[in-house]
Amino acid sequence: MSADLSTVHLIERHRATLDKALEAVRTREYWSPYPEQLKAYPEAEAGKAAFEALLGHQFELDQPGTDEWTGSERSPYGMELGVRYPHPDPDRLLPAMRAALPAWRDAGPEARAMVCLEILSRINARTHEFAHAVMHTSGQAFTMAFQAGGPHAQDRALEAVTYAYAEQIRVPDSAQWIKPQGKREPLDLRKTFTAVPRGVGLVIGCNTFPTWNGYPGLFASLATGNAVLVKPHPQAVLPLALTVAIAREVLAEAGFPSDLVCLAVERPGEGLAKTLALRPEVRVIDYTGSTGFGDWLEANARQAQVFTEKAGVNSVVVDSTGDYRGMLANLAFSLSLYSGQMCTTPQNLLIPRDGIETDAGPKSYDEVVADLAAAVDGLLGDDTRANALLGALVSPEVKGRLEAAPDLGEVALASRSLKHPDFPHAVVRTPAVIKLDAAKPDAEAAFMAECFGPVSFAVAVDSTADAVQLLRRTIRDKGAMTVGGYTTSPEVERQLEEACWEESAQLSLNLTGGVYVNQTAAFSDFHGSGGNPAANAALCDGAFVASRFRTVEVRRPA
Amino acid sequence: MSADLSTVHLIERHRATLDKALEAVRTREYWSPYPEQLKAYPEAEAGKAAFEALLGHQFELDQPGTDEWTGSERSPYGMELGVRYPHPDPDRLLPAMRAALPAWRDAGPEARAMVCLEILSRINARTHEFAHAVMHTSGQAFTMAFQAGGPHAQDRALEAVTYAYAEQIRVPDSAQWIKPQGKREPLDLRKTFTAVPRGVGLVIGCNTFPTWNGYPGLFASLATGNAVLVKPHPQAVLPLALTVAIAREVLAEAGFPSDLVCLAVERPGEGLAKTLALRPEVRVIDYTGSTGFGDWLEANARQAQVFTEKAGVNSVVVDSTGDYRGMLANLAFSLSLYSGQMCTTPQNLLIPRDGIETDAGPKSYDEVVADLAAAVDGLLGDDTRANALLGALVSPEVKGRLEAAPDLGEVALASRSLKHPDFPHAVVRTPAVIKLDAAKPDAEAAFMAECFGPVSFAVAVDSTADAVQLLRRTIRDKGAMTVGGYTTSPEVERQLEEACWEESAQLSLNLTGGVYVNQTAAFSDFHGSGGNPAANAALCDGAFVASRFRTVEVRRPA
How far apart are the C-alpha atoms of A63 and B336, rounded to whole Å? Predict the structure, then answer.
């Protein structure tokens, strides 16, 4: 790589993309700079070979303060990755990262954005390699790992860079302030305004979406002038290690300290995130994971700005539909995709016990549930297609919850085990649907807790009004990343909107085609609202970037 | 008042002002819509009479949930105000406030901004009345109460409304999202985006600047769709009660529930702020006051976004100057204004023990301190002018600290007691300057603690480099709302800038004329940085408004 990474050259290469992104987040119309079609990336074989060459080796990063090498990733598809990564001595690594800050601050918002776009551009060029790394850490099927772990994650990263840049340039670099004083000389000051970083940003990655959930915080912190320490989930290190390596390479080539981006991999059971989160150098934390640790971070990492995405209970209110088949097909896909292991997968389907009106005539509660089960069976009837949709279960915990699900209620759709043609040890399961009655006292304990994985509850409720009440209570008490609704009634639409406005949740209405409640598009859709217990931040808005930096003013007589 | 307060009419009246404010915060050039000259407000007598008519009476607000009447304000100028205010039953008041939210949310960002501007316009028209109310609660001299409590506070309020409006309209009301699907039909969604409030915003006022420090949070929360409950300092209720009354009047006339803005006055010693801050309805808190309670709020009011301005230790580094007289005059004014009872008043003057270079020749440490003392004496030599600058001490605690100051070190300038011509019971004091040597072990305990009031320390340091080190440590450990510096050396300027960039503090360099380190101008200067322990927010930036609301998206097939 002999690229000229001067700021001038980077602006030439990337400024137009940034401008389009700035326009996209303003209009919220469809836009993406990173194609999602596999055929747009011809280097399939090279990418796979690059991934395979990493396995069983030490992942060199040349970062300071490495005291040992560690790594214990095992693919949900069965194989040990065998990659060993640097384990940090925080007392040596964090001061080195802090020392890198002034040069990065002095570069200013535009140069920082351009460096971030160059990083993303190189990540994008290696999307095939990333796809394999995401697949064999998250358990996603290849196409999903390619799209969600590749271009869609890159989109979310660019979106964060875009918001970060826009936020920093709301104040000019300098201003002359001349205040009239009647007949006397005016007061005349020259003022400069500098975006200064908080310090070190810590990104605590998750197992299921290491890049998609990790990139927004990483790039938002970096673009606002912070250094970023990436602490991946111990089972999903590789995609983030590749990311860190590319970031360090670009930073160095552009003349910045590569220690602005470092990796911290923990020994099994070490609990390194807890140690790092309380370090005084760490001033921003981005976390995706369990509610327990997210709440702990919010309560204890008081020296830092803490952005969390935690657990939630997503509901779909089924009131009526003008496209019964479309609704069933859409829901079946939503429940099946990545075996329901998305934070956005619907868990509770709230269905009136007296049934619903549809274009195919009235359907009883039992019919709706049976027809949904049949739709899932139909969708997943072909094993090849099923494997391409489901992927593998990410962890024994998910498998355990799935196996315990039949004890929670009446099984409307039993989970089925599939063989994967290429990976005989992969744990592949179809989703289960369990019937529960909201009126029965013990049912609530089941459906009001997050049951992460391929388990959904068909909850019988007294009426749509009852469903909306339960929806409100679920969002308020448990949080929700997504809410779905099916209705032909403008009045019910309004009730659902009112509920989501008041409880602060993102609502998808009457999805019957190729858009699913569990998918959001960067530059247009918000992921989470930041206003209910599932997450204290949304991807991406001003609040996600505005407190990652501060503006320091220096004023002097002109 | 028979005004037509339809949104159309309000836009006609106020939209141009909002547009100018939007431009002002972008350019940071001088601008203010509210004149600061007393002569711009002819209603001096009527304003005074209106203030006097309030004294000794019950302050009617017609708000729900009032369970008794309370009030114990005593002017720092000596008289009891005798005003009684509604004391709330939170169980009745807060639900009424929440019930007011949907109509306010549905109004949208522009209508909310216009209503806020109408409120400010009516407050502005009553600036004389407010000036007396601020004077007799804070102890500020009349002119300062008029300017800082009137137009300058109104400026800060408008600035907050401006940021709030700008933040909410970054996302469009609706968008059509059309994603190409190759040869298939494109995916086509219609999306709406609604700014939704957090809930009830709680404003916890302070004694010294009830309007200036209270307005930004009040108007930022209101403009972002929240209801606002104002809990004033028990000794500075009247200016905020007037504000609440005007807000309620305008809201009702504009067709909105007046309970969107309510007042909560505590019984003596009740600790009402603590009770209200933990209520689940309260989702935003703005607080100005002691570090102890600010830290408590940040740690305990976890259900709310908490914005705090707490205590800090402000330093001025004196390295050298090209205008010795100007420097002394400027510092003398800064120390004297409102008897040093501003959160922005310099406390520690860091002066090399070997003296400094000036345009009037080299000056030893002792000479600089003596000349500063003489400058203060000169400034305050005339009792009329001194009274007009100093105002009265706000509380017995400030008086106690001033009286204890001589025990802390060598007195370079003794505080002097003045008689006020109109208010014989006012406690009026000139500032004290105490000499301390940073090299002596016991000195640090004195100058590293905030000594709020008319006490400054002339701290002898080894060198300018030593001063910059001490400055950094002071900001990092104790926080600072302001930093000043005097130097003719570009290198020292750069060291001071670097220190303030790294420690996140606002720096004023070489002020020798009519701008003072303790004064900031809305639309141009930031008050605080939000990046050091003195405050977790700055007035005003994107971070001050962005998390007060959330954006809820509803998407449906087009």
Answer: 53
In 3D, which of A415, A397, A404 has the Cα closest to residue A452? A397
**How far B172 CA sits from the closest chain A CA (Å)?**
6
CA distances to A393, B359, B449 from A450, rounded to whole Å, are 17, 72, 48
Position A403, amino acid: E
Output the pLDDT for position A3.
57
**Residues for chain B: how many in total?**
558
Whether pLDDT at A381 is above 90: yes
Test B514 with A187 for CB contact under 8 angstroms.
Answer: yes
How do residues B367-392 score in pLDDT, each as one tens digit? 999 999 999 999 999 999 999 999 99
DSSP string, A396-464: HHHHHHHHHGGGGSEEEE---EE--SS-TT--EE--EEEEEETTSTTHHHHHTS---SSEEEEEEES-H
In Å, what is the CA distance from A548 to each residue of B32, B497, B542? 29, 20, 11
Q: Which of B29, B191, B497 sits opposite A28 (nearest CB)?
A: B191
Closest residue in A to B476 (Cα–Cα): A280
pLDDT for B1:
42
Which residues on chain A are in Cβ contact (under 8 Å) with B194? 501
| ipTM beyond cut 0.85 | yes
* CATH of A315-509 given 3.40.190.10, 3.40.50.150, 3.40.309.10, 3.40.50.360: 3.40.309.10
Q: How far is B183 from chain A (nearest CA, A)?
A: 13
Which parts of chain B register pLDDT below 50? 1-2
pLDDT tens column, B440-468: 989 999 999 999 999 999 999 999 999 99
Looking at residue A479, what is its pLDDT?
98
Helix, strand or coil, per DSSP, at residue B306:
strand
Chain A contact for B530, CB < 8 A? yes
When comparing pLDDT for A492 and A268, which is higher?
Answer: A492
**Sign of the alpha-carbon dihedral angle for A351, A356, A361, A367:** positive
Fold type of domain A7-311+538-557: Aldehyde Dehydrogenase; Chain A, domain 1 (3.40.605)
pLDDT given for residue B24 in this prediction? 98
Interface of B with A in 163-192 (CB under 8 A): 167, 170-172, 175-181, 187, 189, 191
B-chain residues within 8 Å CB-CB of A501?
102, 105, 194, 196, 552
A452-475: per-residue pLDDT in tens?
999 999 999 999 999 999 999 999
What does the alpha-carbon distance between residue A475 and residue B550 come to, in Å, rounded to a whole number?
15
Cα–Cα nearest to A182, from B67, B281, B316, B40: B40
pLDDT band at A5 (very low <50, low <70, confident <90, very high): confident
Using CB atoms, pick whichever of A502, A513, A541 lies closest to residue B546.
A541
Is the CB of residue B490 less than 8 Å away from at least one CB of chain A? no
User: In the block, which residue shows the tokens 């359907």?
Assistant: A363
Q: Cβ separation of A513 and B181 shorter than 8 Å?
A: no
- The amino acid sitting at A150 is G
Task: Please check whether residue A451 is in contact with residue A405, taking contact to mean a CB–CB distance below 8 angstroms.
Answer: yes
Q: Confirm or reject contact between A531 and chain B (CB < 8 A).
A: yes
CATH topology agreement for domains B7-311+538-557 and B315-509: no
Q: Domain coordinates of chain B in residue numbers?
A: 7-311+538-557, 315-509
Query: B 284-303 residues with CB below 8 A of A?
Result: 298-299, 302
